[in-house]
Design a protein that fits this description.
alpha+beta, Cytidine Deaminase, domain 2, 10-stranded mixed sheet, 5 helices, 12 strands, about 25% helix, globular
């Protein structure tokens, strides 16, 4: 089954804006006439939040339609890690899932980088990212998605076109360059134990094949506003 993640405009805006808000001040290029970088502020670091929307199954596709991204404010963060409490997570889920057509789909977080270190690996999940996502999916009982937004600050605004490579989109917003990537927890949720004997045999046959599990790239990421590139902000 192919995995597709579709991110709607408002959800993308929330992820991008929160990632820029908490972008480490020390990672900003020095302004003209300055010889030193700025110092980080207490709330600088990674941004993170929860993703809600609809999970749609059609033919051989599973589509995660992300219509809402809720930034978590009660977090502890630094430049390369962000954490939250289960208590605040459940608060957000409880109220958000009470709205119609909104179910929990997963989470997002940012990976801020200095300009000279930013590259294709900007959105690669860390071991901690994978462990956290797989654990959350196992507890929730459904496969979940994880969207990572790698971001850096340039010396000037860029209006270049976006590029895509399946599970990622590289684009620009003003002086910020970002890479948006989507992953899914594969194999985090165990099959139903009362499946038929025939299903058990199929599962055994599949187990004989070398099926990869973990936090894996989705087959396609769709985000029209990000795919427009930097020119959309002119």
């Amino acid at each position: 089954m192919s995995l597709i993640v579709h991110v709607q405009e408002q959800a993308f805006q929330a992820m991008l804006i929160s990632s820029i808000e908490t972008f480490p001040s020390s990672y900003l290029p020095p302004e003209q006439g300055q010889s030193r970088r700025r110092k980080d502020r207490p709330q600088d670091g990674e941004a993170m939040g929860l993703l809600f929307g609809q999970r749609v199954y059609k033919d051989d596709y599973e589509v995660f339609n992300v219509s809402l991204a809720v930034t978590m404010q009660a977090t502890e963060r630094n430049s390369d890690e962000v954490s939250y409490s289960d208590f605040h997570f459940e608060r957000i889920r409880e109220v958000t899932e009470s709205f119609p057509h909104l179910e929990f789909l997963g989470a997002f977080h940012s990976h801020p980088w200095k300009k000279e270190d930013f590259g294709a690996e900007a959105t690669e999940p860390s071991e901690a990212d994978e462990e956290s996502a797989m654990e959350a999916a196992g507890e929730y009982g459904e496969e979940l998605i994880e969207i990572i937004l790698g971001i850096t600050a340039l010396s000037r605004n860029s209006y270049r076109d976006a590029t895509q490579d399946g599970h990622s989109i590289d684009s620009f917003c003003g002086r910020y360059k970002y890479r948006l990537s989507a992953y899914c927890t594969v194999g985090a949720v165990e099959e139903d134990s009362d499946e038929s004997e025939e299903d058990e045999e199929d599962a055994e046959d599949e187990a004989d094949e070398d099926i990869e599990t973990g936090l894996l790239p989705v087959d396609q990421l769709i985000c029209p506003v990000a795919a427009h590139g930097g020119r959309i902000f002119t």
